[in-house]
Amino acid sequence: MSGFSALNLANSALTANQRALEVTGQNIANVNTEGYTRQRLELRAGNTAQTYTFYSQSDNLGDGVNSETVSRIRDAFLERRGLAERGTVASTTAVDTAFDQLETSFGEPSKTGVQSLLTATSSAWSQLSATPKDSAAREAVLASNRSLASSLNGLAASVDKQWSNTRGGTVDVLTEVNASLREVAELNDAIRTATVQNLNTNDLLDQRDLLVTKLAATIGASTVDGPDGTVNVVVGSTAVVTGNGASTVTLGGGVSLGAVPATPVVLTLGNGGPPLSPGGSVGGQIKVMNEVLPSYRTALDGVAAQLASTVNTALSTGFDQTGGAGGPMFTGTTAATLTVALTDPARIAAAAAGPVGADASSDGRLADRLSVLGQAPGSAETLYRGAVTRLGVEAGSATRAVASASAVAAQVDLARASVSGVNLDEEMTNLMVFKQSYAAAARLVTAIDEMLDVLINRTGLVGR
Predict the structure, then answer these.
(1) Do both 240 and 128 map to the same domain?
(2) Which domain holds residue 235?
C-alpha cells in the first residue's frame, strides 16, 4: 500500500467516525421524541479489489471503511406483538369504561336507587294491608310507585344516552382514523419515491410507524410489508391501505339502542361496504353498543314488565274503596314507558273481596299479597337484584381484563424499548468510542504525513 493509499484509508476512517458521531448525536437529540427509533450507522470494510485476477498483486490490506447506510434498530416480531397488545388494551379499556358508566347510572347501593324504591314500594303495600282504610297509606302507595316508575324511566334514559354518546364518540374517532389512513398512504408514496432515489427514509418510516401504532389502538390495525418500502394496513383480514391508496371506514348498522340487536352496529369499508372486524377502542365500543348496553336495557325492561304485570294482575282481582273492580296501576311495559295510571288513592284495589268500608268485612289481603311479591322468584325485585349482581361481576371482570392486558403490553413495550429505544448510557459510550476512533484516525493522518514528509523532503539530498 502506498502512502497516498494510506491517506485514503485514514480519510475513510475519519469520515465513517464523523458520521457515526452524527448518528449518535441524532439518537441523543431524539431520546424523548415520540415514535423515534434508534439508528445505527452500518459500516463495512473497504477492499481495493472486489474481483481478483490470477496475477493480482493486491496485498488484500483493504481500502479503509465504507459507511453505507443508517439503519433503524427494530425487532419485527416485537413490533407486531406491540401493535396487537395495544389494540387489546384499548378494546378492554373501552368496555371497562362503559361498565364504569353503567355502575354510575345504576348507582347501587344507594338510598335513591331502584333497589331501595322497590323495597319502599313493598313497605307501602305492607302498610296499606294493615290499614286499608287509611288515605295516607293509599297516598304512600301511589307516591312510592310513581317514584319507582320515574327512577326506572331515568335509568333507561341514562342507558339510552350512554349508547348514543358511545356511537357519536365512535363516529368522531373514525374521522381521525380516516385522516390517519390517508396520511399513511401519502407516507407510503413518499417512502417508495425516496427508496428508489436511494435517499434516507428513517424519519418517514418513524412517522408512518407512529400512525400505525395509533391505528392499532383505535381499530386494531396490523401491517403487511410491501416490496418497495410500503406497508399495507389491515383490519381483521381486510386491507384499508394498499400502497399509496387509502380506503375510508364508516360506522353502519343501528342508529339507536332500540334498533339493536336486530340491526347491529358494524364497521364497514366505505359507505355500505363489506363489514370489518375491528379491534382497539372502536372494536370495544362496538361490543358495548351491540352487547353490553342492550343486555342491561333488556334487563331493565324485564323488571318494568314484570312489575307492571304482577301489580296490574293482582289489582284486577280486587275491589277499591268505591266498591268497583280494581284497575291497573301501571301503563307501559318497558323501563322507558312505565307510568302510574292511577291518580285517585281510593281507586287502589286493596281488598280481595268487597269494597273497603266501615264494617269488619273489609280487608287488605290483596295489598298484603302485593307486599310480599318482591320476595318471590322471578319478581321485579329479584330480576333487578340479579341485574345489579351481574353488573358488579361483569364490571369486575372487565377491570381485571384491562389490568391483565396492560401488564402484558407493558412487558412487550419494555422489550421493544430495549431494542429500538434510545439508551443514553449506551449512546454516551458510543460517543466516547467514536470520538477516540476519530482521534486515532487523525493520528494516522499525522503519521502518514510525517512519513511522506521524510520521503519527499528528506531523501535525495546526497551531494548538495
Answers:
(1) yes
(2) 82-411
Which three three-digit cell numbers place residue 433?
Answer: 468510542
Phi, psi of 325 (to 5 degrees): -65, 150
Residue 355 pLDDT > 60, yes or no? no
Backbone angles phi, psi at 42, to 5 degrees: -90, 120
Cβ atoms of 68 and 44 within 8 Å: the answer is yes
Sheet holding 238-242, edge to edge: 222-225, 231-235, 238-242, 245-246
Q: Is residue 441 part of a domain?
A: yes
- Cβ neighbours for 109, distance < 8 A, ≥ 6 positions apart: 115, 116
Q: CA 242 to CA 230: how far, in whole Å?
A: 8
DSSP secondary structure letter of residue 384? H
Contact partners, residue 132, CB within 8 Å, separation at least 6: 350, 351, 356, 362, 363, 364, 367
Sign for the pseudo-dihedral over CA of 212, 213, 219, 221: positive
Residues 401, 438 share a domain: no
Q: Is residue 308 a contact partner of residue 332, using CB atoms and an 8 Å limit?
A: yes
114-135 residue pLDDT tens: 999 998 988 888 888 878 788 8
The C-alpha cell at 3 is: 502512502
In degrees and rounded to multiples of 5, residue 131 shows phi and psi of -130, 70
**CA pair distance 75, 58, nearest whole angstrom:** 40
- 86 and 66 in one domain? no
Peptide bond into 264 cis (omega under 30): no
DSSP H/E element including 281 = helix 280-287
Record the pTM: 0.87
**CA separation for the pair 27, 73 (Å, rounded):** 11
- Residue 456 has a CB neighbour count (10 Å cut-off) of 10
Name residue, grid cell 336507587. 113
